[in-house]
């Protein structure tokens, strides 16, 4: 004996005007059909014959998926069987109908006895025999020989692109909880979203329930799970809100796992999105992606890696900035107070070109397995600076150049300060790799070439600026020994982060210079990406 | 009619009113240096001016560890317990 499936109850209006409910305390035959399906058309005379033969003992119901089509079927076949209007497709969705015709026979309690999909001559003969036995009546007379042995059905209207997502958004148990905003037909939806202050200055994709449902297919997690709170408003960030902003940014569902992992990072107090947003210095989230997902979603790690033109690079970073704006409440002129800002404040996300690197990739250095996909975020200046060296042919000379370039981070005379992210081009990586220098050697050389005695770092009449950290600035209070103390650019080699990316040609390295780091600012933070698609 | 989902936190902004202003400055004034460059210089000037103008008040100094983050709870609680007035000063 097989377990009985209890079918969903429903009430629908028939074309003739009367209302039918299921279950009705009688056995019932449910026939899901649509008019533009040849197999449904083939089946209609049999549905009508079953109604005429057993209608006084058994409910026979045709459930049509489009209103004009339903009327056309009734007219064409002179149907007397009730034709129920499911043009809203809610019952087809509730029954998870993928193909029409779907024929379901149920007992008086609404438990499923038999189901077949498409057309099967033997299926219909068996069904008629079962109904006849149950009704205690003769089976209808049908010229079975005139029917084909079998015919496949057609796709149900409830699974057409866009429709299934709409139905899911409207159904009971929908994952959608966000406030729905209705925009009148005479309003331009794009202008409306600008007017509401929801965009970063560029148009956004309207986050319709259908699109958000599709985005949520990029995770197995509950849409209402709270990832944390986003500064500066410290509002709770649900996965649903991440999905809404990811739609607006232009993400595809397959990018969503990356956006989710990055969203967890902006909720981490150590990452300090509050300060990154608020500082006049113009810091911004810099997002680096490692692991197999780079290839899977087609991220750019080569030519123009930090520029425009690649959808995942562009939209993942943009989604994070939109979340900080819309959920966190950081808007330019409000809490976001960068003096200049830069284009990187729209988006800054790229993949490491692991295959072109002589070193372990960033995520492996940071403790993850090579086969894991990982997002790492830095809170650094929004706009990289390029360091040119087209002549060095040894690792020592080239890294020395990179070190001198990196010394300009924040201010050349500011030492013992900040993190730096160096994006080394493949050509530069080749030169360094040829001499078999490890990343640690690179870091030590950068510290070596940038180490200066404190006396050289103090402000003079010729250059002002910070010059040194405030506790180093009081020249009078320093002994000769203190003034001769050697101070490297970065507090530790751990503050120098190195990845490889960029086009095959070009002897450049790019640096994202430091904003405040560590407990005084932002701690570079990584999260594993949960891949589901 | 098109429907979109609200991308914001949906929280109705809360209007905050200022605490009632005292007519007289007396008791303890806290000076909070948020730890920006030369914030200490500005705070020291403020301390001198306040001491000249209102000789009777006590002035206490407080400091945030970093300007990049909100003041830690213990600093805020200490100021709440010890001060009648607080001046928070930026500088650069």
Structural commentary:
The complex is a heterodimer of chains A (533) and B (92). With 533 residues, chain A is of the alpha+beta class. In chain A, helix 5 packs across helix 7 (209-216) and helix 8 (239-249) packs across helix 9. The mean pLDDT of chain A is 93. Chain B is of the alpha/beta class. Chain B has two helices and four strands; from the N terminus they run ββαβαβ. A three-stranded parallel β-sheet of chain B has the order 3-2-4, sandwiched between helices. In chain B, strand 2 (28-33), helix 1 and strand 3 form a beta-alpha-beta unit. Chain B is elongated and about 70 Å long. The N and C termini of chain B lie far apart (52 Å). The mean pLDDT of chain B is 87. At the A-B interface, strand 12, helix 8 and helix 10 of A face strand 1 of B.
Features:
heterodimer, A: 533 residues, alpha+beta, Glutaredoxin, five-stranded mixed β-sheet, four-stranded mixed β-sheet, B: alpha/beta, three-stranded parallel β-sheet, 2 helices, 4 strands, elongated
What is the gist of this entry?
The complex is a heterodimer of chains A (533) and B (92). With 533 residues, chain A is an alpha+beta fold. In chain A, 31% of the residues lie in helices and 19% in strands.
Class of secondary structure makeup of chain A: alpha+beta
Q: What is the rounded Rg of chain A? A: 33 Å
> Which strand-content bin applies to the residues of chain A?
15-25%
Count of extended strands of chain A: 24
Which CATH C-level class of the domain at 10-160 in chain A is it? Alpha Beta
Largest sheet geometry of chain A: 5 strands, mixed
- Oligomeric state of shown chains: heterodimer
Mean pLDDT of chain B: 87
The N- and C-terminal alpha carbons of chain B lie at a distance of 52 Å
Secondary-structure topology with pairs:
The complex is a heterodimer of chains A (533) and B (92).
Chain A: E1 10-13, E2 19-22, E3 28-33, H1 38-54, E4 59-64, H2 67-77, E5 83-85, H3 90-94, E6 99-100, E7 102-106, E8 112-117, E9 119-120, H4 121-135, E10 150-151, E11 154-155, H5 163-170, E12 180-183, H6 189-195, H7 209-216, E13 226-230, E14 235-238, H8 239-249, H9 256-266, H10 273-278, E15 283-290, H11 293-296, H12 311-326, E16 349-351, H13 362-365, E17 374-381, E18 385-388, H14 395-406, E19 420-424, H15 426-434, H16 439-450, E20 452-453, H17 454-457, H18 480-483, E21 486-487, E22 496-500, E23 508-512, E24 525-528
Parallel strand pairs in A: 3-4, 4-5, 15-16, 19-22
Antiparallel strand pairs in A: 1-2, 3-7, 6-11, 7-8, 9-10, 13-14, 15-17, 17-24, 18-23, 19-23, 20-21
Helix pairs in contact in A: 1-4, 5-7, 7-8, 8-9, 8-12, 9-12, 14-15, 14-16
Chain B: E1 2-5, E2 28-33, H1 39-53, E3 58-63, H2 73-82, E4 85-89
């Amino acid at each position: 004996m097989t377990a009985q499936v209890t079918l969903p109850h429903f009430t629908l209006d028939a074309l003739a005007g009367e209302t039918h409910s299921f279950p009705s305390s009688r056995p019932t035959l449910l026939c899901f059909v649509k008019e533009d399906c040849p197999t449904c058309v083939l089946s209609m005379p049999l549905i009508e014959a079953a109604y005429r033969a057993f209608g006084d003992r058994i409910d026979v119901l045709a459930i049509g998926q489009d209103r004009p089509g339903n009327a056309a079927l009734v007219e064409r076949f002179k149907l007397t069987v009730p034709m129920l209007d499911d043009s809203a497709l809610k019952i087809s969705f509730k029954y998870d109908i993928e193909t029409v015709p779907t024929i379901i026979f149920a007992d008086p309690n609404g438990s499923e006895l038999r189901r077949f999909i498409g057309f099967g001559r033997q299926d219909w003969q068996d069904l008629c025999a079962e109904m006849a036995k149950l009704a205690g009546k003769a089976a209808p007379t049908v010229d079975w020989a005139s029917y084909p042995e079998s015919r496949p059905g057609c796709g149900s209207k409830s699974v057409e692109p866009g429709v299934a997502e709409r139905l899911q958004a409207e159904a009971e148990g929908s994952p959608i909880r966000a406030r729905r905003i209705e925009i009148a037909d005479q309003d331009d939806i794009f202008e409306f979203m600008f007017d509401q202050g929801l965009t970063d200055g560029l148009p956004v994709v309207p986050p319709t329930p259908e699109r958000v449902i599709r985005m949520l297919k990029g995770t197995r997690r509950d849409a209402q799970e709270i990832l944390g709170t986003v500064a500066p408003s410290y509002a709770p960030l649900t996965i649903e809100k991440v999905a809404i902003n990811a739609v607006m940014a232009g993400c595809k569902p397959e990018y969503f796992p990356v956006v989710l992992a990055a969203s967890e990072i902006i909720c981490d107090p150590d990452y300090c999105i509050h300060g990154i947003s608020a500082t006049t210095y113009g810091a911004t989230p810099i997002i680096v992606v490692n692991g197999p997902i780079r290839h899977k979603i087609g991220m750019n790690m080569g030519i123009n890696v930090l520029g425009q033109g690649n959808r995942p690079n562009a939209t993942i970073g943009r989604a994070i900035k939109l979340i900080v704006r819309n959920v966190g409440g950081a808007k330019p002129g409000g809490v976001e107070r960068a003096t200049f800002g830069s284009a990187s404040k729209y988006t800054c996300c790229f993949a490491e070109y692991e295959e072109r690197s002589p070193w372990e990739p960033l995520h492996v250095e940071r403790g993850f397995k090579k086969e894991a996909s990982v997002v790492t975020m830095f809170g650094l200046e929004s706009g990289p600076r390029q360091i040119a060296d087209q002549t060095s042919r040894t690792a020592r000379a080239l890294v020395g150049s990179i070190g001198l370039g990196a010394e300009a981070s924040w201010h050349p005379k500011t030492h013992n300060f900040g993190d730096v992210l160096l994006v080394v081009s493949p050509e530069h990586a080749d030169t360094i790799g040829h001499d078999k220098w490890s990343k640690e050697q690179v870091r030590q050389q950068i510290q070596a070439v940038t180490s200066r005695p404190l006396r050289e770092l103090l402000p003079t009449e010729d250059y002002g600026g910070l010059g040194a950290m405030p506790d180093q600035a009081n020249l009078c209070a320093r002994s000769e020994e203190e003034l001769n103390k050697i101070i490297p650019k970065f507090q530790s080699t751990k503050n120098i982060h190195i990845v490889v990316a960029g086009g095959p040609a070009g002897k450049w390295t790019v640096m994202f210079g430091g904003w405040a780091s560590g407990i005084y600012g932002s701690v570079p933070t990584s999260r594993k990406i949960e891949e589901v698609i | 009619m098109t429907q979109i989902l609200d991308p914001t936190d949906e929280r109705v902004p809360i209007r905050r009113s200022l605490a009632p202003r005292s007519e007289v400055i007396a008791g303890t004034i806290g000076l909070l240096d948020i730890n920006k460059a030369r914030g200490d210089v500005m705070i020291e000037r403020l301390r001198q001016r306040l001491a000249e103008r209102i000789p009777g008040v006590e002035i206490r100094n407080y400091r945030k560890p970093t300007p990049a983050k909100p003041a830690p709870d213990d600093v805020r609680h200490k100021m709440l317990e010890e001060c009648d007035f607080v001046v928070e000063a930026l500088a650069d």
